[in-house]
Amino acid sequence: MTRIPTKQEVLDWISANPTLTSKRDIAKAFGIKGADRIDLKRILKELEAEGHLEKRKRSYRDPDRLPPVSVLQVKAPNADGDLFARPLEWHGEGVEPIVLIIARASDPALGEGDRILARLTVVHEEDHNYEARLIRRIGTNPRKIVGIFRKGAEGGRIVPIDKAGSTEWLVAEGAALGARDGELVEAEQAGPKNRMGLPRARIVERLGDPTAPKAVSLIAIHQHGIPDDFPDKVIAEADKAKPVGLKGREDLRDMPLLTIDPSDARDHDDACYAHADDDPKNPGGHVIWVAIADVAAYVRPGTALDGEARKRGNSSYFPDRVVPMLPDRLSGDLCSLHEGVPRACIAVRMRIDANGNKIDHRFVRGLMRSAASLTYAEVQEAIDGTPNDRTGPLLESVLKPLYAAYTALKKARADRQPLELDLPERKIVLNDKGEVESVAFRERLDAHRLIEEFMILANVAAAETLIAKRSPLLFRVHEEPAPEKLESLRETAQAAGLNLAKGQVLQTRHLNALLNAAAGTEDAELINLSTLRSMAQAYYSPENFGHFGLALRNYAHFTSPIRRYADLIVHRALISAHGWGKDGLTEDEIARLEETATHISDTERRSMMAERDTTDRYLAAYLSERVGNEFTGRISGIARFGAFVKMEETGADGLVPVRSLGREFFHFDREAGTLMGSDSGLIIAIGQRVTVRLTEATPVTGGLELELLSIDDQALPRGRGPAKRSTRRKAASTKRKKDKIKRKVERKRRQR
After folding, report:
1. What is the DSSP string of 264-301?
2. Residues contacting 61, CB < 8 A, separation 6+
3. DSSP letter (8 states) at residue 546
4. Residue 607, helix vs strand vs coil
5. Are 482 and 54 in contact (CB under 8 A)?
6. Pairing assessment for the beta strands 84-87 and 99-101 based on DSSP bridges
7. What are the CA-CA distances from residue 158 to residues 184, 187, 693, 697 (Å)?
8. What is its EC number (predicted)?
9. Which of these, 500, 501, 492, lies nearest to 523 by C-alpha position?
């Protein structure tokens, strides 16, 4: 019988072999085979439960540290010439570890954007947590710059538009592409990086007036490298596509399937229908149909269309435009479930009991015809008693049965207890000129929740079917919060006089109990924000680790293949598993599922950042006319350089620079997430209610600068507040005059 290693032996192996930490690697290292793997699995689970390890995809690592050997991306040198790097293997939601690169004489010159493999050492310095020593450079990403061109005597400079305040770039006269002074441009690095002086760039595209309203999203698209032009070959393939017929499909055209979407929806990729179950064995039960656009019938593996869709990963949505995953011929036409038009679909028929529990389901490849394309608002109005000409004829036969099924699903949801965060989403409303007209809360109607519950049920059915058929697929994974994140949330709750249970396996119901206890109190937003911050980020994976937030064991994205590549993969898996045709999942796709999962998880994060940056710029433009006004808000983040404040009225995030907090030194406590004044003892922490004055709004970068006036209704300590702007200007002017006199005296002394 094989000797099973002790827990300490396993931990020692993982520490000594950071690149060989999968269960298979560990089993191989200790010679564990066959049934003995069960004991190894038990040991790993126990170490995970005790907080010694965390599971990341198929490997285990210490949750409190970066791996000893990590992939890093080099940042631009700081003012002192020190080179820092961003750890690409950092998965936390909190403050990112700071890594200083320790260069040796034999190391090659490194520059911003370089990706390196490095060996890390934990340190406890004031300005960094890790020191990195280069193992090898593993390549660079193409360096793109989006900024404002400033014309000079011999070419000019590009001033970057990002809020991080990156370095400027020199542009030679012949590399300016005719750009005018003040124009928004995209450029790329020209020539090798220099150790001295500004780097050089050449302009590759002129983007126009940076202050134009419609340039806002364009800036984010280019800055984050989101492809927004389809290659000619991709467009040609899409234009050749023709509607799919009934052959080999189930005829669903007489079923009154409805699409229910926002009023400004660009596409319609899901439809639903429900009716009472007539099976006497299921009293009070319901039958729910969810039909999804059959994108796989048009986008085949190995085609230019497929390559471009995978490259984009998903559609990106901005207040004034959409950058779609698929060309409009497909996304807005052939794949969109338009009212009264036959459309190819993959549909699932699901039976639920009176308490909303799914009894069974089956998938079909069909041809449907939407009975109506409705909006959330008009559906809700019809149910509330004011139907219109479109919803009136459908009220009794279609809409009420949908809501009856939803009522049952609500019971199952209440039993399951998914995470119930209460963080209202704000919507930017633009006028015809593309300018911000208002910032409003997005409505949350029962019509929205109905569609969400139907889609979740269909996603679960897809995952369960493919698991049962032993088919490869991509799961939507949301892992449990890290222990240190939970401890931080627990401390925040205790400070608010609330309690988060300890010493048991965390479930979403425990977090919901905390959120319910905070509801209606002045700490409700703080607890909701802190709970959100404690959550891990969801991602795609060919391995199933469950979905913590939804409290579901099996979950995959199936319902949005027009705008998400993950859903298209699931559709292809269903086609192969059911033997519906030759357009299913190929062996090549199966072989690179892990690579695809990583790629589309990255493109999803890229879109989220671009969308967030666009929102920041629109809000900065909206608030630029209100500089000097006072606003209320809450501290939403703490950094060494200042405190972030989320303003209540608009949801905009602004920065209170630490330099504006007064004449004392403020100590930054990374673990506690606080700034503390050295003289006054003033503590600034996440969640505090504050009053601020808007001192600066920069639409081009999206930056908002604030002055802190009060914390928790208490004015700042007297004598410690920021000096008046006029006083600061006067002091600076006086200093310049004194320095000028000193230099003049020194020159005369030397002349003697």
Report:
1. T-S---EEEEEEE---TTSTT-EEEEEEEE-GGGTS-T
2. 14, 18, 21, 53, 54, 67
3. -
4. helix
5. yes
6. antiparallel
7. 9, 9, 31, 21
8. 3.1.13.1
9. 492
Tokens linked to 674: 């606080």
Asked if residues 618 and 609 have their Cβ atoms less than 8 Å apart, the reply is no
CA 6 to chain CA mean position, Å: 39
Segment (H or E) for 61: strand 59-61
Mean pLDDT of the chain: 86
Whether the full predicted model's pTM is greater than 0.85, yes or no, is no
CB contact at 8 A, 147 and 169: yes
Which of 208-212, 241-245, 307-311, 597-601 has the least mean pLDDT? 208-212
Which residues contact residue 291 at a Cβ distance below 8 angstroms, ignoring those fewer than 6 apart? Answer: 252, 257, 270, 271, 272, 273, 337, 345, 346, 347, 366, 368
Q: What is the pLDDT of residues 116-174, one digit of tens each?
A: 878 888 887 777 888 999 877 765 444 678 889 999 888 899 988 766 556 788 998 88
Assign residue 647 a region: left if phi > 0, alpha if psi is -120 to 50, beta otherwise? beta
Give residue 196's identity as a one-letter amino acid code: M
Helix axes 446-468, 376-383, angle to 10 degrees: 110
Nearest CA-CA partner of 686 in 94, 125, 65: 94
pLDDT tens-digit map of 322-375: 999 999 899 988 999 999 999 999 999 999 999 999 999 999 999 999 999 999
- The b-or-e profile of 58-83 (16+ CB within 10 A means b, else e) is ebbbbbeebbbebebbbbebeeeeeb
pLDDT in tens, 388-445: 999 999 999 999 999 999 999 999 999 999 999 988 788 888 888 888 888 888 888 9
Element (H, E) at 387: none
Tokens encoding 466:
């493919």
Place of tokens 């490095």: 118
pLDDT value of residue 194: 64
What is the DSSP secondary structure assignment for residue 375, as one 8-state letter? E
Burial readout 410-424 (b: 16 or more C-beta within 10 A, e: otherwise) = bebbeeeebbbeeee
Q: What is the DSSP string of 143-207?
A: -EEEEEEEEETTEEEEEE-STT-PPPEEE-GGGSTTPPTT-EEEEEE-SSPPSSS--EEEEEEEE
Yes or no: say if 179 and 206 are a contact pair by the CB < 8 Å rule: yes
pLDDT at 731 over 60: no
Give the single-character DSSP code of 394. Answer: G
